[in-house]
Write a structure and sequence with these properties.
Strand order of the largest sheet: 4-3-5
Oligomer: single chain
Shape: globular
Strand content: 5-15%
Order of helices and strands: HEEHHHHHEEEHHH
Largest sheet: 3 strands, antiparallel
């Protein structure tokens, strides 16, 4: 099997067999029923993030794009199981790109929805407590972190994500980007992800993606980010 398949299959299959996900892990609050991935419910209405993210974008992003990743993940896992049952590990390994893409898309988006909250509720503002101290320690200030994140997002060629991560070995925070739907893996724990795919902003911001990168900070749910930071 390929290295990608060896890394991805155990995590996804283990979650499927458990029937539920650990909320603080990279798999976020991803939900599964009878061994299949399912689209998680949002804890807010589609229009709740306006005017920063339109209700139409949220509806399409969640119910169409994320659902596509869910369907693709289930199909990839079924294909791998069938191939392994026949002892055809070459065929199983050939599904690795689909597993990585759709599995990563499902995991990334499940965490992304939790990263957001209406500005009238828990969205926006600044982090507090130990998370704030860690950001100031490793980035200098929250404003510097925001600027570096927006610069990283603007520098993504094509589609991808920018992530605030915690190194599980050193405890330090860092900023990384991932292409397409590649998930954050290894010693890095994803705390906050911002989607730079066009489907996340184009209906509202068109080609002005820098405006979207500025606007999304108004609906970042720092409480969920802090929770992941404290549990990782």
């Amino acid at each position: 099997m390929s290295a990608t398949l060896l890394r991805t299959v155990p995590a996804l299959r283990g979650a499927l067999r458990a029937g539920a996900m650990k909320p603080a892990a990279a798999l976020a609050s991803t939900s599964f029923i009878r061994g299949k991935a399912t689209l998680p419910d949002l804890p807010y209405d589609y229009a709740a993030l306006e005017p920063y993210i339109s209700g139409k974008i949220m509806e399409l992003h969640h119910s169409k794009h994320h659902q596509t990743y869910v369907n693709g993940l289930n199909s990839a896992l079924e294909s791998i199981e069938t191939a392994e049952g026949k002892g055809d590990f070459t065929q199983a390994a050939s599904v690795a790109p689909l597993l990585n893409f759709h599995g990563g898309g499902h995991l990334n988006h499940s965490l992304f929805w939790e990263n957001l909250a209406p500005a009238s509720r828990d969205g926006g503002g600044e982090p507090a407590g130990e998370l704030k101290k860690a950001i100031e320690r490793d980035f200098g200030s929250l404003e510097t972190f925001r600027k570096k994140t927006n610069t990283a997002l603007a520098g993504i060629q094509g589609s991808g994500w920018a992530w605030l991560v915690k190194d599980k070995q050193s405890g330090t925070l860092g900023l990384v980007t991932r292409a397409n739907q590649d998930p954050v893996t290894g010693t890095l724990e994803p705390l906050l992800g911002i989607d730079a795919w066009e489907h996340a902003y184009y209906l509202q911001y068109e080609n002005r993606k820098a405006e979207y990168f500025d606007a999304i900070w108004n609906v970042i749910n720092w409480k969920t980010v802090a929770s992941r930071f404290e549990k990782s």
